Structure formats: C-alpha cells, structure tokens
Amino acid sequence: MKIKVLIVDDSALIRGVMSEIINSQWDMEVVGVAPDPIVARELIKQTNPDVLTLDVEMPKMDGLDFLEKLMRLRPMPVVMVSSLTENGSEITLRALELGAVDFVTKPKLSIQSGMREYTNLIAEKIRIASRANIKPRMLVAGAHGTHGEALAPIRNPLTSSEKLIIIGASTGGTEAIKEFLMQMPSDCPGILVTQHMPEGFTRSFANRLDKLCKISVKEAEEGERVLPGHAYIAPGHSHLLLVRSGANYMTKLDQGPPVNRHRPSVDVLFSSAAVSAGKNAVGVILTGMGKDGAAGMLEMKNAGAYNFAQDESTCVVFGMPREAIAVGATHEVGPLNELPGRMLAYFAAHSSRALRV
Predict the structure, then answer these.
(1) Is 196 a catalytic residue?
(2) Domains present along the chain, CATH in parentheses
(3) Of 89, 170, 271, 272, which is the active-site residue?
(4) CA 120/CA 40 separation, integer angstroms
(5) Of 196, 230, 239, 262, which is the active-site residue?
(6) Which of 29, 204, 263, 292 has the most CB atoms at less than 10 Å from its CB?
(7) Cα(169)–Cα(283) distance, rounded to whole angstroms?
(8) In this structure, what is the dihedral angle of CA atoms 181, 304, 295, 100, given to the nearest 10 degrees?
(9) What is the pLDDT of residues 85-108, one digit of tens each?
(10) Is 350 a catalytic residue?
(11) Could you report the per-residue pLDDT of 196-208, keeping only the tens digit for each?
C-alpha cells in the first residue's frame, strides 16, 4: 500500500514540484492537490489521505487556523512547508505546537531546483509522518504535573550544581522538550539539549521556551559556563558538546561532519557527557526517528550516568527511545508527563545519600 499524500499550497509551482517529488517515490503517491484549505477540506473527505503537506500562508484561511481545526476534528499526520525566516520559524513552531509532525523549509532562491534538491528529505519526512502517533496532546501548566500536583524543587544548590541533565530528541521533540522543561524548577541542574532542527529555527525555539519556562533557556554559544536553572539548546549549525574546565562545565560547539546524518547530533552530545560528567549526568531520550543517541546514551550509562527514555505510548515517533532501550542504555522508561518527576525524585534521593556520607 502506497502512502497517500494530499498537498495544500497556494503556489501552483510548489504543488507541481511537490507532486513530482512524491510521485517519483516507489512507496507514495499524490492523491490530490489543493490551493487553499477550503478545497483541501473536500479533498480530505474524498481521498482520505495518510499524510497532508500544508503551506503556512495561504488565502481564504491561514494554514495555522486550518491546522488547528483539522487536529481537533480529524487528526492526521501533517508536514508543514515553511519559509526559512524569523517570522516563518515562529509560525512553524506554533504549527508543531498545534500537532504538525514535522516541517520542510522552502529554499530561499530557486524554488524549483531547490525543492528538487530536497527530494530525499521531503520523502523521508512524509514516510516518518505516515507512521507517527497522532492524538490530542496533554497540556502542562507551569511546574505542575498533569494532575496538578506540584513537583518538588531541588533544594540543595551545592549538590545540584554538580549534576547535569542531558536531553536528546528529534521528530515530535519540540513539544516533548517544551513539556519536559516547563516542569523544571528554577533551581534544577544545568540542562543541555540537542533537538534535530535546522539553523534558523533553534534560536526561535530557545526564545519561545524561555518565555514559557521557570528556568532560563537559550541557544547555546561557544564556551559558556553551564549553570543551574539554565538550559542550552544546540544551534542548528553545530554539534553541542559538554566539556570540563577546572571545576566548571562548559559548552563547546563543533561544526564537524554530521553524525547519524545529523548536525547537531544527539550521540555527539551524549558521548561528550559520558566523558566529561560521568555519574553526575542524567540522560533523557525523547521522541524521534532513527537511532541517533542510542550509542551515546550507552556510553553515558557505562560511565555511571542514570538514563530515562520516553515510552512508546507518548512518543510521536518511538524510534530513538526504542533503539536506546534495545541496546540496554536506559534505566527507566515512562510516559512523558512522568519523566520530569521521576528524574527530580532521582536527584533528590541521590542528593540525600550524598549528604549522609
């Protein structure tokens, strides 16, 4: 069975190029094209597509308004087609918040040749989206669990300042990271995050999180001291590594080749944490396609770190956590809404034992 794709875009050129790309794949076909959401609504009823590609800015109905209605009335995998601009990145992040699985950025120069260069990327994102776990998202408000219970803050800054939280994610990760970080108390250990995301989006992502969370969130820069109550997001152009400088943990950026086809790579971050932090680190692997992070998380475990993985029921795509679990890299597996509380409980128990020694 081929993956049935419906293309929604107000540009006839984009509709044509996307159709050419999708129909050239052995395992997918275009079952309809629509210039706006009004036409798309009827085509969804007629063609029952497996995946919808959706432009952001369109006439008659904004892409975000349509996406919001679609995910409420007829949830289905959606891949956004976005412009790579500051405004475009904000809109795309909002689309992911509303339930889009992933996004493709339109090239800045020649649309026709640029989109064709993206053939493999577009096809891969559509394949991933077709297997995504689409369902209503649970809301997380402030530093509370999903049932309203407050999560206990870490109360010993001298202990927590030695500890670190290392997070990796891919498809579906922007929302998972948001939900995770929103539950972090202001005195939590320093956090390093690698999310597979292109350059131009990571800064907007970090700024968005900074406005929502009790902790400070920023795009990581070269040579920053990692501080408690702060999260550092890997920039889209570089691998993020953790290094030690005397008594301090520091960030390091590396523009070396992609690892597991990604830069930034989760494996690179996890491996650096194994070397530099060892048992002071806690690893967290969240939703994502592929195996990036599994080998690095195993290195962390072998170095004494304690590791958590998001479970299949709450992942948009269970690929990365599944691979980490399969190689024996994790200690605990649980639903996304429980992971922050479990991790903070681990820190609290670990801190209590340290104080009794």
Answers:
(1) yes
(2) 3-130 (3.40.50.2300), 157-356 (3.40.50.180)
(3) 170
(4) 25
(5) 196
(6) 292
(7) 11
(8) -10
(9) 556 688 889 999 999 999 988 766
(10) no
(11) 998 889 999 999 9
